[in-house]
Specification:
Layout: E1 3-8, H1 14-23, E2 27-32, H2 36-43, H3 50-59, E3 61-64, H4 77-95, E4 101-103, H5 111-119, E5 124-126, E6 146-148, H6 161-175, E7 179-183, H7 185-190
Parallel strand pairs: 1-2, 1-7, 2-3, 4-5, 6-7
């Protein structure tokens, strides 16, 4: 059983999580946009500090979360395709590591954009769909188990994200299936 945590957006609180992941030997992928600072200004949180960014990139896998803060389905398709392709190249050059994973911002995609992720050389496209354990049915629209820190999602059906996640974690452990949770460090801060 492999446990993976995915952290999106590049908030400075990512650094605190990264230190905990190292301490407890937890595999993590940090999905960052190329324009971390532009996104942080739009969303009103503190962007990751350069030294913290460097620390995380040296110790964890980085995945792409596009170039800008725009949602891929809300911009012209040719621009969305360019963001998918170019973000991989820019991040590989910046961090000196292969960028093999892409996260669809807010989970928004189309069949054409999902195919672009595949054609661009990514090995995985992560969605924001939850409730899944084990190998993804479609590696270019992969679901996860739980959205950490998010207090309200219809899937929780009267439980908290933690109760929902623990139930799936126990099932994954029992069935020896992989378990992946995702979230934003700012949500963990905001919702305590």
């Amino acid at each position: 059983m492999q446990v993976t945590i995915s952290v999106d957006d590049g908030c400075d609180s990512d650094y605190r999580l990264a230190k905990l992941f190292l301490k407890y030997n937890i595999k993590a992928v940090f999905y960052w946009p190329v324009d971390i600072h532009g996104l942080s200004m739009t969303k009103h949180w503190k962007a990751i500090e350069p030294s913290h960014e460097e620390f995380i990139a040296q110790n964890f896998e980085i995945g792409s979360n596009k170039i800008s803060q725009r949602y891929l389905t809300q911009i012209p398709e040719n621009e969305a395709i360019e963001e998918i392709i170019q973000s991989k190249k820019i991040l590989e050059n910046k961090y000196g590591q292969p960028i093999t994973k892409f996260c669809y911002p807010r989970g928004y995609t189309t069949p054409k954009l999902t195919e672009t992720v595949k054609q661009a050389g990514y090995e995985l496209g992560r969605s924001t769909v939850i409730g899944h354990i084990g190998e993804p049915e479609n590696p270019f629209f992969a679901s996860t188990a739980v959205h950490m820190g998010c207090p309200i999602r219809a899937e929780y059906i009267g439980s908290t994200w933690l109760e929902y996640g623990l139930k799936l974690f126990e099932q994954a452990k029992k069935e020896n299936k992989d378990f992946e949770a995702w979230g934003h460090s700012w949500e963990i801060d905001r919702y305590n």
